[in-house]
């Protein structure tokens, strides 16, 4: 437990969401207090341009960082679009914006240019915010800050409770946020998600500074803010759950055809693909290679509730895969662009296996001393790549350059270079 966690916070302001005390960031020795209502009440949902314009002006005139959150309808709708955006800033209060009614929030994004955005698990929300024109130039990620500071639980509820002494009600996290109108309890939950986000940010900044990690965190936040949008995943159908059972190329082709057909239907209907056809049903059909709709209907996932028209479209996908020439069948597995799986290193390259073992041990020991997860200290993939194909002249400069080439930030390069250099030059690693 850190010094900041040991301080007792004033509980007199917690029940209705009053302003936390200056020592927020402290865990409460007694029972935490539920946060029941936003301090100014639930703000009305903004659904028209006039209200949006007023809200943008208010937030542009606010002060300090802005807390930002977004709610999606994962598992209900196709894609990961935002169905509600929550914001809070000193001088402006809280706001709830409906991005379905107001799909272009680029004006809000421009008004907040240069302002630090506070998000929890920023990489989850940034793609859907980018779609509606909201792109931060600076950010503070409270989840990542918690990881770097060594907190064992970094979900928003756990962080608010452990650091500020409040309990957030999390019962609506997995609801269908595309529902209209949104029920009042959901809106209360959404508003409370940003209620204390800036307070949490301030407490974590103090804790990171106390641990000597604030500059490291700032470099991480800058890397997230400046990262380009992720490239579309190649062959996303290969991520079908249960794919490990499918080994023959013809069966792989069935998975691909069914997955692509399902995706087109889900996109057209704007529903989650899993609501159209389950992954388990796709794999079942691939393994069975049914010859007609009667055989298909007998498989798990294609029961009596599946209409004849639906069965016909799924069987047509199976038939297309069965009719492909061998040259059109997918290859098993995905093209390997990096090192082989570590379990194969001992046979393929014993010296590389020894380097990796030494590097992993060194990184693990360093991460433990720094009280942070190993993957935040350095990407495991980066360690594997450097150990598999080490620089020809293993010295401080070349190892540091290799780390930089794989995207490591300056603080990571400084800390990890000596560890990797020792692993690469150890006698048992080069034997």
UniProtKB/TrEMBL annotation:
Gene Ontology BP annotations: nucleobase-containing compound metabolic process
Alphabetic keyword roster: Hydrolase
Pfam families linked to this entry: DNA_pol_A_exo1, DNA_pol_A_exoN, HRDC
MF terms in GO: 3'-5' exonuclease activity; nucleic acid binding; nucleotide binding; ribonuclease D activity
Top-rank EC class of the record's enzyme: hydrolase
The enzyme's E.C. designation: 3.1.13.5
InterPro entries: 3'-5'_exonuclease_dom (IPR002562), Exo_C (IPR041605), HRDC-like_sf (IPR010997), HRDC_dom (IPR002121), HRDC_dom_sf (IPR044876), RNase_D-like (IPR051086), RNaseH-like_sf (IPR012337), RNaseH_sf (IPR036397)
Region (Disordered): 1-41, 324-344
Positions with biased composition (Polar residues): 1-18
Domain HRDC: 248-328
Superkingdom classification of source: Bacteria
PANTHER family reported in the protein's UniProt record: RIBONUCLEASE D
Protein name: Ribonuclease D
Organism: Streptomyces echinatus
Top-level taxonomy: Bacteria, Bacillati, Actinomycetota, Actinomycetes, Kitasatosporales
């Amino acid at each position: 437990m850190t010094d900041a966690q040991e301080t007792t916070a004033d509980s007199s302001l917690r029940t209705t969401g009053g302003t936390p005390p200056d020592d927020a960031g402290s865990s409460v020795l007694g029972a935490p207090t539920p946060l029941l209502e936003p301090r100014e009440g639930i703000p009305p949902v903004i659904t028209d341009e006039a209200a949006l314009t007023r809200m943008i002006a208010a937030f542009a005139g606010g002060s300090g960082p802005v807390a930002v959150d977004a709610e999606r309808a994962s598992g209900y709708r196709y894609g990961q679009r935002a169905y509600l955006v929550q914001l809070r800033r000193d001088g402006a209060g809280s706001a709830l914006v409906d991005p379905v009614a107001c799909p272009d929030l680029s004006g809000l994004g421009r008004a907040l240019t240069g302002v630090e955005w506070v998000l929890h698990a920023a990489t989850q929300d940034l793609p859907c915010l980018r779609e509606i024109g909201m792109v931060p130039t600076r950010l503070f990620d409270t989840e990542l800050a918690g990881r770097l500071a060594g907190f064992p639980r970094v979900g928003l509820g756990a962080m608010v409770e452990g650091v500020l002494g409040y309990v957030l009600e999390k019962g609506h996290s997995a609801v269908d946020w595309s529902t209209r109108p949104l029920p009042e309890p959901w809106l209360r939950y959404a508003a409370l998600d940003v209620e204390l986000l800036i307070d949490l940010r301030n407490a974590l900044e103090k804790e990171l500074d106390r641990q000597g990690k604030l500059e490291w965190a700032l470099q991480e936040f800058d890397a997230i803010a400046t990262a380009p949008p992720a490239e579309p995943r190649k062959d996303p159908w290969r991520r079908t759950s249960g794919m490990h059972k499918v080994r023959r190329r013809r069966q792989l082709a069935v998975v691909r055809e069914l997955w692509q057909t399902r995706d087109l239907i889900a996109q057209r209907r704007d529903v989650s693909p899993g609501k159209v056809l389950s992954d388990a049903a796709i794999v079942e059909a691939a393994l069975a290679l049914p010859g007609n709709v009667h055989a298909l209907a007998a498989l798990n996932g294609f029961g009596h509730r599946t209409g004849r028209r639906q069965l016909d479209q799924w069987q047509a996908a199976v038939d297309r895969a069965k009719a492909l020439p061998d040259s059109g069948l997918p290859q098993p597995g995905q093209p390997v662009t990096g090192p082989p799986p570590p379990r194969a290193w001992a046979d393929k390259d014993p010296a590389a296996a020894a380097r990796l073992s030494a590097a992993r041990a060194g990184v693990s020991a360093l991460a433990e001393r720094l009280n942070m997860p190993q993957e935040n200290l350095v990407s495991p993939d980066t360690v594997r790549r450097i150990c598999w194909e080490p620089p020809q002249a293993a010295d401080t400069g070349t190892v540091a350059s290799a780390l930089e080439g794989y995207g490591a930030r300056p603080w990571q390069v400084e800390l990890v270079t000596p560890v990797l250099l020792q692993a690469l030059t150890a006698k048992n690693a080069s034997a």
